[in-house]
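Async update (no meeting this week)

Hi team, since we skipped the sync, here's where things stand on the single-chain job. The sequence we agreed to prioritize is pasted below, unchanged from the tracker. I ran it this morning and attached the output directly underneath so nobody has to dig for it. Comments welcome in thread, and please keep replies under the output.
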Amino acid sequence: MILHTIISEQDIFYKPQQPNIRYKRVNGGMLELNGADGTVNRLFSTDPAMYLDDRYFPRTKSVGK
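Output:
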């Protein structure tokens, strides 16, 4: 394929880096963890009390990796 353009090749064929993310089930919900260091990114739950639990706050270390 030949492209006649002034835009760089990296801008045309850009592939974004996929974040290293893991998911872990906890009682009553699911945690989205940063795979590199195991910190909590998000909590998915229908239990409102889980959102008040400091173990599941964003940027805290995961419980029992």
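Quick observations from my side:
DSSP finds one helix and three strands in the chain.
The mean pLDDT is 88.
Reply here if anything looks off.
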